[in-house]
Amino acid sequence: MSNIDRQRITAVQILEGLGYTFAGGGWKAPAGTVASLVPEADTMHGQLVRRADDLAGCTENSPEEQELESIVNAIEAYEAKRWPEGKIPGGKG
Fold first, then answer.
1. Position 32 pLDDT exceeds 70
2. Is 22 helix (H, G, I), strand (E, B) or coil?
């Protein structure tokens, strides 16, 4: 057996030991991991975008403007991590 084969076997054992399963041509993260929180995080992102839309055009120097700024910062930070290439895989953009 080659060294690369031993490395692959060890990697699979480690992943399975961490609760990952291989199905449908890819590795699936165990429940409760960060990867399993993506749908919830995307939902929260959508809610923040809707709230930012509601606050658009608010009065300058108002509490709403401060809230909008915080929300925009959170949205931009999330999008930079979630879609580092600036697009959704398989999406239109």
1. yes
2. strand
